[in-house]
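Our preliminary data section would be incomplete without showing what the modeling component actually yields. Below, a chain of 142 amino acids is followed by its predicted structure, encoded as tokens that our downstream tools consume directly.
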Amino acid sequence: MSRLQLDRFVTFIMVVLDPKSHEMTVVNAGHMAPIHRMKGGKFDEPGEELSGMPVGIMEGVEFEQHTFPLEPGELLVLYTDGVNECCNVVGDMYGIEKIRELVAGPDLTPETVGQKIVADVKKFISTRPADDDMCLVVFGRD
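Predicted structure:
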């Protein structure tokens, strides 16, 4: 992509789940780290410190991977910047902290977490049109 000299870049995150070992491997190219909600409602953002630069900025960039287990009852939330950077009618930004708060509650299913985030974002932006596309993926392990 960098060879095309389009003066553009793309953030990218890839998560690979090994269904036998229940290990997640994250590779991040300038994207927000996923939110990993662990048992009891605690969370972390795996691979945040290993995030590389976005794809297309420089040739030959190698990206590091981060592998961690997904235990029963845990979940992972991935989202695009259209979610955390959306603004309300007075121009306030939604922010990552709001997403973290909604994910941190214990004993929530992936479906419930996804529904809570979507409902909260809709309420926050109210009648204001979205500035960017929004994508949200939430999945977990039973």
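The mean pLDDT is 92. The domain at 2-140 is CATH 3.60.40.10 (Phosphatase 2c; domain 1). Preliminary results of this kind motivate Aim 1 of the renewal.
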